[in-house]
Design a protein that fits this description.
The chain is of the alpha/beta class. The chain is 33% helix and 17% strand. The protein has 2 domains: 142 residues, 3-Layer(aba) Sandwich (D-Maltodextrin-Binding Protein, domain 2); 132 residues, 3-Layer(aba) Sandwich (D-Maltodextrin-Binding Protein, domain 2). α6 links the parallel β7 and β8. The longest helix has 17 residues.
């Protein structure tokens, strides 16, 4: 029976994927082109981080080395979890190390860094997460049963449903009639997990999860597929997963932080207007000023050429110009001796 369910689920997912079309991402022309600084650099630049960012990181290093061949570079791409361990046992000085990461640093990882150094890693957003590619920091969507009368929820409503001590019935979220007194049956991932951490921080504002949430992990069936399948089997269920985990028994909700409700379309994820669009990061040690090698490398990554490398990757998405501008201002502050207020 389990094999039959798995087979049917695979067919559903293939059918769903064929209905989702996306355009090749175009780099925002407002992003400034890379203009290498002419000052000679010294020492090293070492990268330790995510294997899902290996091809783009290698090309970023090539972009850097084309202008600064005098800098010795190394690269290790094993997993996002190696970013923090890389800083705990650096290749050389932590001041010349960068940590590409396909997710946010987890609380237990941050705690180990803090215990050793007394500070947190400094993250720079360097790429948009994918629209729906599993393993590539895809956007998170909220699934409900296809018969659910609701089509949209605010972050405040989501937080109240998923957090401990919050609302427990569909009526509290605006569903009327026979739905009003029905319990919200929640589905999520076993902790610790990068996706669950992202939702907890960005939707629940760090509040604890509702204690009776159903949690799953991956085995022969990916965990997010299990969540969408569970929601399809229960009219009163709700869970989080990715666009590629859609099946005919569920629907995705439009979400709002404070303004308009936004549906998780390709265009809205690319523009980072959909509120559960995600990012990939490069983490660095918060030394002030940042080492010139790190600054120059990040200048290349946050240039038109650096984002073009992302666009050609076919998984991660280039950043909008407005976000690049924010990260470049942040980089300029940390590159100076001025006091930085986090």
């Amino acid at each position: 029976m389990l094999q039959l369910i798995s087979f049917c689920l695979v067919l559903q997912l293939i059918s769903a994927a064929s209905n989702w079309q996306s355009s090749y991402p175009v780099v925002d022309p407002a992003i400034p082109h890379y203009k290498p600084r002419t000052t000679a650099l010294t020492e090293q630049l070492n990268s330790v981080g995510a294997n899902t960012l290996d091809s783009v990181t290698l090309r970023w290093i090539e972009l850097f080395r084309n202008s600064h061949p005098e800098v010795a570079t190394t690269m290790q791409a094993l997993a996002s979890g190696t970013v923090y361990t890389g800083f705990l046992t650096p290749v050389s000085s932590i001041s010349v190390q960068v940590g590409p990461c396909a997710r946010e640093i987890l609380p237990n990882e941050a705690a180990e860094i803090r215990a050793k150094y007394g500070w947190d890693l400094l993250p720079f957003r360097v790429a948009g997460g994918s629209f729906k590619s599993p393993g590539y920091t895809h956007a998170i969507v909220i699934y409900v049963h296809k018969t659910n009368p609701l089509d949209r929820l605010s972050f405040s409503q989501l937080a109240n449903a998923f957090r401990d001590g919050g609302v427990t019935t569909w009526g509290a979220l605006g569903a009327g009639g026979e739905w009003a007194d029905k319990k919200i049956n929640l589905w999520g991932l076993v902790l610790p997990n990068g996706i669950a951490h992202y939702v907890q921080i960005n939707v629940l504002n760090g509040a604890p999860w509702r204690t009776d949430i159903n949690t799953v992990t991956s085995d022969t069936i990916p965990a997010l597929d299990k969540i969408s399948f569970a929601v399809s089997q229960d009219p009163y269920a709700m869970g989080y997963a990715g666009v590629s985990n859609w099946n005919p028994g569920v629907k995705m909700l439009s979400l709002s932080t404070t303004g308009d409700y936004i549906y998780p379309s390709w265009e809205k994820v690319l523009a980072k207007e959909y509120p559960l669009s995600r990012f990939a990061y490069i983490n660095v040690a918060p030394t002030r000023p940042l080492h010139p090698n790190v600054v120059e490398f990040l200048r290349g990554v946050l240039s038109y050429e650096g984002q073009e490398i992302i666009a050609q990757n076919a998984a991660f998405l280039p950043l909008p110009a407005a976000i690049v501008e924010e990260e470049l201002r942040k980089l300029e502050l940390w590159a100076s001796n001025a006091t930085v207020i986090n």
